[in-house]
Amino acid sequence: MPRSTYTEALLGPELYSKVRDTKILVVGAGGIGCELLKNLVLVGFADIEIIDLDTIDLSNLNRQFLFRKPDISKSKALVAAATARHFNPSSGIEIHARHGNVKDSMNDLEWIKGFGLVMNALDNMDARRHVNRLCQAAGVPLIESGTAGYLGQVTPMIKDHTECFDCVPKPTPKSFPVCTIRSTPSEPIHCIVWGKTYLFGKLFGEDDEDLDTEELDQAKASGENAEEIENLKKEAAAFREVRKGLGEEDGPQRVFHKVFNEDINRLLAMEDMWKKEGRVKPVPLLYESIIDGSFQVPPLRNAPVAPQPQTEGSAKQAEKKGLKDQRELSLKENLELFIDSCKRLSARAIAYPNLPLAFDKDDDDTLDFVLATANLRATAYGIANKTRFQVKEMAGNIIPAIATTNAIIAGLIVMQSLNILKTLSSSNSGTSTETNGASSAGPAVRNVFLRTDPAKPLGFSEPQRADQKCSVCRDVYIPFRVDLTRCTLGQFVNDIIKNWLETASFESREENDELEWTIFEGGRLLADPDFDDNHERTLEDLDIKRGKMLTVRDEDGKWRPIHFCICEGDAQATPPYALPSRPPSIPLAPPAPAPREASEEPILLDSMPPVAAVSAQNGSAAPASAQPAEVVPIASTTAAGIKRGAPEDGDVRLDGEEEVAAKKRKVEQVAVTKVDNGDDFEIL
Ligand SMILES: [Zn+2]
């Protein structure tokens, strides 16, 4: 009996035939992608294309289970397809694997239109946005997904029925005011950012005096304490001095004295700075008394009761109990680690004087340095210390990638894909704009998210309608098959814009509306009514490529922009382009948004986006509209886009909780069942 017999019985013949016939695109063969591909094959999807530009890394193997050690350095997409093929043999399943970038020019509008459904299993915003735009332009349903630690979400996006990826604004990465990092830290992350980007850069990075001055001048111009800024400038000059002597025997000790004693004393002399509410004065550190154990550790600023003084004894106890990287170092150990890592790094800097060093979480020398400096600074400011593991996670912007979360999310993607397929009219395989719409009853699809509340592990919400102001899903897209070597910009303007587009139906067009057009590609202006210098040039000459868009806007901004999506043309055809037989309907543009207020604070470095909206190992956490209130279990210091390596043996122990929880959370139904629980979302 073929493996698909049960699936066919479960889904029914109609839905099962759609599963067999619909061409699926999976973008990404990583954490979610591997799980997803396996699920698709087992359900019986028979025509799958998977694309990924990445190769397999050792650190992937703890969760991307389609890969084995001998596969390291090979293409993820090719290996994933080769492995998954065997899961449902003799069922006629075709998996087309492509090692490449989804943004490659060959992946144009015509290409994406060849799919009935697209599933994103991506790890970065840029590619997500690209696929979203393609799917919106082509009218192909997209299932967007992402995980961040224990959290995750699945968001179906169907043109004209739900919001798209860009309808929900994404928060910009969090950054910190210069003075918080340089003078008045109050959180461990401030100390880590200081160690990683400021002190490390000053001692071992590229010495860029101009950049430094510019940054401080900007901070001053935007209203930060002028005296403090002048002080920071002097400090920068003094750094150049200690940097020169780093290679000497007492070099690291001199750095310690300058950074943790002299600089702190200089800050303390600025009385004004410490008058502000909530500021805690730092305590200068003393090398000798830390070494001989007589140094009085300042109390923790947030401690409700007097803190236990840190002693060598308690550190030793912790050492026995904890794992190497999860043990908090004593003050003396931090100092010794600072001296030692400084020596190691300066030896490297001397050996390769023209090669500035850069922080890398997997480079032990640089991590030790940041660990020690962050903890020493934290101690001086009465801020809690962090372990090596925590500093690695925070400085490396790591969000743990958890196999179980990926598996749950991949399962939910397939369930939502079945919901979408059910809504497609039975007469098609969902390959064109006209036929991809949902049934008249509306799409029975849901945004589903995984939460950390054991009582309500899965939540869902109805997809929101598209934001009328969205510049991605509300614009007009036109497939434009063109031979770029023969079509000139003048032809495009005269034949297509002035003639063909005139026949389109413009919403609320008055008889006397004279249309004047401006033509862009990306951010480049190619032509407008007073600028025809490029008219004689071919599109190829203007560096217009397949996969790009020629964007046409009316000068008054009355209507939506129209994007002509460049697809491969026929080299023999006359004229050298082909357009849809029916000109489009052009809706009115929404009213212009109010101008944004300028950002209040000058910013410093580091990409530390707020947790709730991060784009993590395999995705972004839930958008604001679908976000449960308690989405804060990830340390507020983790951030986007960096993959986490496999933990070393004995290094990290993940709680077994997620496995138990996953068993309890088994989702048994394809369709979502609402439970009236009085909450503002429902539970599966
Ligand atoms: Zn949108």
Task: State the main characteristics.
single chain; 684 residues; alpha/beta; Rossmann fold; Arc Repressor Mutant, subunit A; Structural Genomics Hypothetical 15.5 Kd Protein In mrcA-pckA Intergenic Region, Chain A; nine-stranded mixed β-sheet; six-stranded mixed β-sheet; 19 strands; binds zinc ion
Your description of this structure?
This is Ubiquitin-activating enzyme E1-like. One of its GO terms (cellular component) is cytoplasm. Belongs to the ubiquitin-activating E1 family. One of its GO terms (biological process) is protein sumoylation. InterPro entries: ThiF/MoeB/HesA (IPR045886), ThiF_NAD_FAD-bd (IPR000594), UAE_UbL_dom (IPR028077), Ub-E1_IAD_1 (IPR042449), Ub_act_enz_dom_a_sf (IPR023318), UBA_E1_SCCH (IPR019572), Ubiquitin-activating_enz (IPR035985), UBQ-activ_enz_E1_Cys_AS (IPR033127). Mean pLDDT is 80; it is low at 426-443 and 597-684. The protein folds into 3 domains: 4-169 and 400-461, 3-Layer(aba) Sandwich (Rossmann fold); 186-382, Arc Repressor Mutant, subunit A; 476-586, Roll (Structural Genomics Hypothetical 15.5 Kd Protein In mrcA-pckA Intergenic Region, Chain A), CATH 3.10.290. It is globular. The chain has 684 residues and is α/β, with parallel strands linked by helices. The longest helix has 21 residues, at 331-351. Helix 9 runs antiparallel to helix 10 and helix 11 packs across helix 14. The strands form 4 sheets. Strands 3-2-1-4-5-6-7-8-19 form a 9-stranded mixed sheet, with helices on both faces. Strands 12-11-13-14-9-15 form a 6-stranded mixed sheet, with helices on one face. The protein has a two-stranded parallel sheet with strand order 10-16. The protein has helices at residues 4-11, 13-21, 31-43, 76-84, 109-113, 125-138, 178-182, 188-204, 209-221, 226-244, 251-268, 287-291, 312-321, 331-351, 364-380, 388-395, 403-423, 489-500, 657-664, and strands at 23-27, 47-52, 94-99, 117-120, 142-148, 151-157, 447-450, 458-461, 476-482, 505-506, 517-521, 524-527, 549-554, 562-568, 577-578, 585-586, 615-616, 619-620, 682-683. The chain contains 19 helices and 19 strands. Zinc ion (ZN) binds at residues 163-164, 166-167, 466-467, 470, 472-473.
